[in-house]
Specification:
By secondary structure, this protein is mainly β. The protein has a domain at 38-117: Deoxyuridine 5'-Triphosphate Nucleotidohydrolase, Chain A (Distorted Sandwich). The chain has one helix spanning 68-71; strands spanning 6-9, 30-33, 38-40, 45-55, 60-65, 75-78, 81-82, 89-96, 102-104, 109-117. The strands form three sheets. The chain has a four-stranded antiparallel beta sheet, with no helix packed on it. A four-stranded antiparallel beta sheet has the order 2-10-5-7, with no helix packed on it.
């Protein structure tokens, strides 16, 4: 392993994040697990606890992202940035975009934790930006 993240179990049933596939062709993100049952009503957002707190080195943080299996069922994550200085419980912000309640059981894989390197940029005000082929083309600009 290249990096160790100190992880505190705040709940006796909490499970450490786990990569489903490791090694040279392994996963980009580790699974996060719910520490308790939660039902997310249609069209609502809920905080689902993991029972874990982590101490990231100052040059790292993490992003909490969807699990594709849940996303295809209509439950998605929101607001998933974990800064290196945060030491509280990691809770996953989950939104149900379906018309039916979705119940997540204790121990279910609910999201993915992707470790990222922290880069602090300086934002400089300029009068104009250089031209590129894409220009200001945004959503849908490639025809897809």
């Amino acid at each position: 392993m290249d990096l160790q993240i100190q992880t505190a179990k705040l709940h006796p049933d909490a499970r450490l994040p786990k990569y489903s596939h490791e090694g040279a062709w392994g996963d980009l993100a580790a699974d996060l697990y719910s520490v308790e049952e939660a039902t997310v009503a249609p069209g609502t957002t809920a905080l689902v606890p993991t029972g874990l707190a982590m101490a990231f080195p100052s040059e790292y943080g993490a992003l909490v992202e969807d699990r594709s299996g849940l996303a295809v069922k209509g439950i998605t994550t929101l607001a998933g940035v974990i800064d290196p200085g945060y030491r509280g419980e990691i809770k996953v912000v989950m939104t149900n975009v379906t018309r039916e309640p979705i119940t997540l059981k204790a121990g279910d894989r609910i999201a993915q934790l992707r470790i990222v390197r922290r880069i602090q940029a300086e934002f400089v005000a300029v009068e104009s930006l250089d031209e590129t082929k894409r220009g200001a083309g945004g959503f849908g600009s490639t025809g897809a």
